[in-house]
Amino acid sequence: MNNFYHLCFVVQDIGRATEDLTRTLGVTWSPVRAGTLGDWDYSIVFSVEGPPFFEVIQGPAGSPWDATEGSRFDHIGYWSNDVMADKQRLAVRGAPIEFDSCPYGRSFTYHRLDSIGARIELVDLAVQPGFRDTWAHDVAVMPPLDLDELNRLPGEVEPPGHGGGHRFRSGPPGEDPMTSA
Fold first, then answer.
1. Which DSSP helix (H) or strand (E) runs through 20?
2. What does the angle CA 80 – CA 85 – CA 91 come to, to the nearest 5 degrees?
C-alpha cells in the first residue's frame, strides 16, 4: 500500500475548522501560515500529529481552495519522485489534472476523482525537507507514491522494456494469484 502523507480540508473559516478538530478529535496544530500562489492569498496549517497529517486551507473564491459552496474534504496528498511523469500517469489512469502549480513556479498537482468527490495531490519529493523543517520537525523521511507498484499482483513482473500495458505473472502455472497465499 502506498503511503499518503496528508488529508486536506478546504474551509471557509480556518480558525473554526481547527478549533472543531481540536475539540472533537484532540488534534494539535502548527502555527497557521499565510501563502500566495499567483494572485491568490491563502492560509494553511498542518496538524502536529502525523503522518498522515491533517491539512486545512482557506483560500479565496476562484482559487484551487475555493470553499464558497461550503467547507469540504478536498484531497489526499502523496509525495512524488517525479511530478512531471506521475501527473501524466495519473491522468492516463483516470484521474485528470484539475490544477497544476508548475506554471506558478511550484511543483504540485491536483487530480480529480469524481467517484470519491475529491482530489489526489502529488507533491515533489524535493520539497519534503522544507516541509519537515516547517511543519514536521521530528518526522522521518516519508516515502513517495510508487505508481509502478500499484495494481501489481503478488508474483507479477513486467517484461523488461515493456513500459506498461499487459503484465505477466511469474510462478507455478495454473495458480490463481488472487486466491493463493
1. helix 14-25
2. 95
